[in-house]
Design a protein that fits this description.
globular, single chain, about 0% strand, two-stranded antiparallel ribbon, about 200 residues, mainly alpha
Length: about 200
């Protein structure tokens, strides 16, 4: 809504019509994190511990979301002759944007990355001893960097900041820097917690 306000200002009812699209990852991430913070405060839980557990679950959920993007034909890639390039059916948004062209299956790239990231974070949660917040910081740094590069092969963007960066790319440095700041904060404060598999 914030990013595409011009589309909503004349018809505010469209704001709640999520069946017409408009859901973006960063919006969901911010809303979910805010909800978790409120929940942790109500239940008197250690916020960083909960967010560490939340991180791999977020990556798994995001992977399924990107599979949905692929099946829906949104968030599509740029034309490519790479061996795994995909041609979407006529009548779909990608086919309308790039008629007769095969495209990078960027949705599947991101889904695969999130699955690998989730597996790595789960392994770290089970086997390693970290201070609270480190797992979340690893997620933020890894995803922010990866998303920046995935955006390079996205073909569905029409608006660019400074005629160079996509809206998500302008957010990626903030995500990465937040992860780095959290990593330093976690390393310098708090007590390390051993997480053992049961």
């Amino acid at each position: 809504m914030v990013e595409f306000w011009e589309q909503y200002r004349g018809n505010l009812l469209e704001i709640v019509r999520i069946d017409h699209g408009g859901l973006v990852f960063y919006g969901g991430f911010i809303c979910t994190t805010a909800t978790l913070l409120i929940y942790c405060r109500m239940k008197k839980l250690v916020v960083l511990n909960v967010l560490d557990i939340f991180a791999p679950a977020l990556a798994i959920g995001h992977a399924f979301g990107r599979l949905g993007c692929f099946l829906n034909g949104c968030c599509y890639g740029k034309p490519s002759d790479i061996f795994c390039a995909v041609r979407f059916p006529e009548g779909s948004a990608p086919a309308a944007a790039f008629p007769g062209k095969s495209l990078h299956p960027v949705q599947l790239y991101e889904a695969a990355f999130n699955i690998v990231l989730a597996a790595a974070l789960l392994l770290l949660l089970r086997k390693a001893k970290f201070k609270p917040g480190v797992i979340l910081s690893i997620y933020l740094i890894s995803y922010g960097i990866a998303r920046f590069f995935f955006e390079l092969v996205r073909g569905d963007h029409k608006d660019f900041a400074f005629n160079l960066l996509t809206p998500s790319q302008t957010i990626c440095p903030i995500v990465v820097l937040s992860g780095i700041a959290l990593l330093f904060y976690s390393k310098n404060r708090g007590t390390a917690i051993a997480r053992k598999a049961k």
